[in-house]
Structure formats: structure tokens, C-alpha cells
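S.,

Sequence below, as promised.
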Amino acid sequence: MLLDVRDLHIEFRTRDGVARAVNGVDYGVEEGRTLAVLGESGSGKSVTAQAVMGILDSPPGRITRGEIRFQGRDLLTLSEKERRAVRGPGMAMIFQDALSALNPVLSVGEQLGEMFTVHRGMRRKEARTRAVELMERVGIPGAEERVRQYPHQFSGGMRQRIMIAMALSLEPSLIIADEPTTALDVTVQAQVMELLAELQRELGMGMVLITHDLGVVADVADRIAVMYAGRIVETAPVHDIYGP
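The prediction came back faster than expected:
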């Protein structure tokens, strides 16, 4: 099992008391397979993903119980330095709001290139070349020129492709896609999902796809886990969920 989440509990301490956002979540992802996590807003999907990535805001968030095993190691026992080493080469996340996730004052080439200068020790020129290659790989036309442009100069669909390129730059074993087609029109949604599925097959990654839209997962997921009120209430192969 590539990722194995066991009995995960997460709470948030607020002025009004303790809010238990995640109440005993269990799910797993195998290498090269896709788990779609479905649920309404507020069901705990994204909070669970943030805990897996090690980016949960703490405080106010706090993991009170459970295990998050990635490639056999319990991530909750690692130091922050060790968790940072896992992010990028081991696992990466695609956020739902690309405009907010990207730095508005740096060109997309600088942001993509930083992955290689920080994690691979490349020189800036070599990193820029790799950034152009990544942009071409995710289907951004005119990458050689557009690598100098800033996030606001791209459409929503193109920004999402840049986020995908950034997440896949170090070829991680696991990708977490948190509502990757939010605010995109139907045609662009289909293109983004097709791109993700194609890259996943090419790289052999495991993927957790978080969404509230049944329509975007039918062709890409192997298993579906349904969340409600901080719990997994149903899990099954995708053809059982969609079957008659």
C-alpha cells in the first residue's frame, strides 16, 4: 500500500469550543491507482489531505489520533524537516485555486524552476530549461515565450496546468488533487482530468482525487470513498458505485 490512513482524528480549537472535523478516517491508495474521495463541502475531505501532506494549520488544527503511513513510514512520527523532504519527491498536491496558490510576483518559470534548484541543486539556466519542458508536457502552447509570464496572464485552465506541472516536476509517487477542476468550464474540466489521467499512467503514480462532483471521477478513479461529517461512510470500486 502506497498510502494508508488509519483511524485519523482531527479537531480545531475555536473560541466557541472544539470542532471535530475528522472522526476516524480510514483509506488507502495503491501504487498506480486512483482513489476518489467524494463528499459535500465541510465533510473533511481537504482537511484530511492537508494532514497527509503535513500542511495542516496548527494551531488551530490538531491531529489527536491515528496514523498516516506513506511507503511504510508513519508520517506523524517524522520531524518537520523529514516531512519537507517527503513533500515534492515523495508526494505533491494540486490545489483547487491555482491563482491563490501561485505567487503573483514571480514568473511561472521561476516558480517551476525553483523546484529543481531547491530539490535537485540545478543551476538557474538548467532549471529554466526544465520548466519549459514541463510546460510543454502539460500542453501549454508557446512555452518558450510564456515561461517569462506571470500567473495573472494565464487563463484558469492554463493556470491549473501550471499547478499540475509544478506538482509533477519531481515525479512524486503520490499526487493529491484537491478539487482540481473547480471554477473551470465543463470542456476545460474534461481536458484537465484527461491530462491528469494520462500523466498518472505515464509516471505510474498513485492519486487521491478530492471532489464533490461525481461526474469528474467516473473515467479516472479505481475506488471511491464517500465522506460525510468527518467519516468515511462508504467505500467501493468505482463500477459498484456507478453500477445499476
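Residues 156 and 183 are 8 Å apart (CA to CA).

Coffee later?
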